[in-house]
Amino acid sequence: MKKLMLFSGMLLLAFALSAQAADNREMTYKVGADVDAQGHVTDTQFDSDVPPALATTLAAAVKQWQFVPARRDGRPVPAHTFVFAKLQAIPDARGNYSLRISFDGNGPRLRKLNVLPKYPRDARQLRQSAFLFLDATVRPDGRLADMTVSNRFEGWRTRPSFEQAVLEAAKRWRAIPEQVDGQPVATRMRIPVNFYMDFTAEQIRMLREVVRQQDAAETQPGIPLPSEQELALDSPLQPSSVAAIISAP
Predict the structure, then answer these.
(1) For the residues of 66-132, what is the DSSP string, one character each?
(2) What pLDDT, on a 0 to 100 scale, did the predictor assign at position 94?
């Protein structure tokens, strides 16, 4: 049964990403996860647009991962977080796919309806690009506070209007906070915000160098763009065992 579910997940992912080039096809899903006082994932929740067979495949994988239990007043307690699970459908020379499900972080979840920052007019006219980090605290009520913006790449000069655009948009953003023992808690997050049009030769070199340092095996042709996956900096739930799960056809 487990092999059948994994195979169904591979087919769904392959078809869902069929418009992409025939290389590693991937997608990241944000999975609600209930974690008990022993650090085991006991239940998962998915968006309504995730196909049931794929949700079953993801749930089976996420429930194999474990966390250091959250604590309150010195004792381990249940908690709730969002797990970022990356699915990759990897083709072989015969046209078959293996499915790789890997842990890509956990933390609060930004709401889908958040409006993206506007591309600054002055930067657009000059066709300038920027890759920034927004560090912010997700408060228990879901609002963002204590926000700061920094440049993702040292030596990559950006216009002040990029930072202003990010802060202006983030004032209206909302998130679903993590919970500890049934109560929402504050979590510090790092949120990548990318603006891109054209690049100089030096900027292209920077982008390729980052990918090379992370994993040379995943380097793709063309200009690699940095991940837009947000990251919790101080989640009450820290992963303890989150090995990637691979299923061959």
Answers:
(1) EEEPEEETTEEE-EEEEEEEEEEEEE-TTS-EEEEEEEEEEE-EE-TTPPPPPPPHHHHHTT--EEE
(2) 81
